[in-house]
Amino acid sequence: MAAACRDDGENTRFPFLATVRYLVAIVVTALAAIVVVMVVIVVHRPVEMGFQSYGYVQTQDYWWSSWTGDNVTYVYEPAKEVQMLIVLEALNPSGRGQIQANITFIHVIDMPGGASSLVQFCGYKLETPASFHLQPHSFHRYRRWVSIKRQGSLQYLYDKHHHDGSLGFPVMVVVETSYKPAHSETIINKTYHCWPLTFLRGEADTPAAGEIACKTTEEIGYGVTWQSLPLLPSSPPPRAQPPF
Question: What is the pTM of this model?
Fold first, then answer.
């Protein structure tokens, strides 16, 4: 009697097919497990906020006063006040939920020796935090004119940078924030460091600047520290007399 034909690979013209089916089943099972793990990771990964900055901190006027005589401009004292424009964008790159966020404090920091030598010449706490909601895949632009009036800061700008008017000088903008992802009661405090930016007087022919990605303390890998100017205002220098 002829042997019964069984589909177990023992009596087939292609005995390797059983092995192939076995390997395919293993691969499909592994892929399904990977997909499940990825879904779990995505679902439980925290919704994070990002920041980017416009490439400049622009002022309306130079940070010194001057006069012109005999077709020559003479610099002679710090400005009485400097208006500067801060532009930041908060980002929600995730598609998994909205973010409720606040900007609480902004520092503007000089970088005379690069990232290893930092001096804050302006820092302000928002009396009413800038609150906003970020929908998934959206951004919020924070744009504000800030006045520098403290004599110590104006004197510092004059002493260090009155020769940097046309080219500007590098600064870092540090943004302190708090935010809460959707479906969470946990408030997350994050500090973002935006650099290199250029502090300069805005002109009609100032070239457009690209976005500068801001980094958190965790992304930098260490805490950024800086010097602060004296709290007491500096005495203004004697006013120079025109040479004519």
Answer: 0.75
